[in-house]
Amino acid sequence: MSTTLQQAAAAPPRANAITRRRRRELLVGAVILLLLAALPFGVSDVYAQNLIILTLLYAGLSQAWNILGGYCGQISLGHALYFGVGGYVSTMLFVHAGVPPVLGMAAAGIVAGLCALLVGWPCFRLSGHYYAIATVVVGEIGYLLFLNWDWVGGAMGIYVPLGPDSWLNLQFRISKLPWHFITLGFAALTWIVAWVIEGSRWGYSWRAVKDDVTAARSLAVRVFPSKMAAAAISGFLTGVGGAIYAQYVGYIDPDSILAGSFSILIALPAVLGGVGTLWGPLIGAAVLIPVSELSRSYLGGSGSGVDLMIYGLLIMIVALARPQGLVSLLGVRSQAGGGDGRAS
């Protein structure tokens, strides 16, 4: 019997302990949210503000990937497609139809979620590394499609029209403070979605699928619908993140929003922090994004690749010293691996 399903069957005697743990997680999450909300008021440097915004954005994107890759065990290397689709949908609706980006984000998430379902329909019939390779191929097809699609600007890309500061249009030229709260809200949304899923029947089913597909199927877990549901939620949240990014940078093209490197960057914080955990993507992003941006800013201009060497060395050290991710330093076990996530 699948380890995860055995734990689900033994849930009643442990219900009180699990409830206390989940309440504690929610309390810790609320405290961290308040601390992060107060953070920008003590930071006046624009570069540091930008660094915090990108870190929060990638924490949310990585948590969205973690829902599919961590909890359900479907390692996607093509999430840049959903990220890019979200950015293009929101931007094109704003440019051609005048739809405010606040509303465009919802459309971006829906279209990206549908794309995830379209990708999942054939690809989930594959398993293991075959699925991962298929997502790379699909992501590259999407990149080439947008690169040669004149209506969306092709290789030249498209600029977001500038207007007065507005929450409705997500345009803030005077201060970066609103962007801090927008990306913080996005990161909090993905975290709470993961928290709800983790303790739900869906969460147990998804972890069972990851543990042992055959055992899960023999115990009436609907494997294919489970994968599709995880893909839709992950794609939706990634598309919303893409819409936020497009408005933040004010310009998108295939290389800046659909390149395969984005798929890796979206997944790496969760892998570095700990897949299948609530805190892994946040911890991973808090380490990986600042190191990446700072090394690129101060060492990337040399042309010697020192920034990339530092970046790669960090990932190698964590992979060798903490294969369960940085979150294991806190004594937290991966939910995706069948543990209950309590401190060791």
UniProtKB/TrEMBL annotation:
Topology of this chain in the membrane: Multi-pass membrane protein
Segments crossing the lipid bilayer: 26-43, 49-68, 80-99, 105-124, 131-149, 177-197, 228-250, 262-291, 298-321
Leader sequence residues: none
Localization (cell): Cell membrane
Organism: Roseomonas mucosa
Keywords on record: Cell membrane, Membrane, Transmembrane, Transmembrane helix
Name of protein: Amino acid ABC transporter permease
GO molecular function: branched-chain amino acid transmembrane transporter activity
Highest taxon of the lineage: Bacteria
Short name of any one Pfam family annotated for the protein: BPD_transp_2
InterPro entries: ABC_transp_permease, LivM-like
Gene Ontology CC annotations of this record: plasma membrane
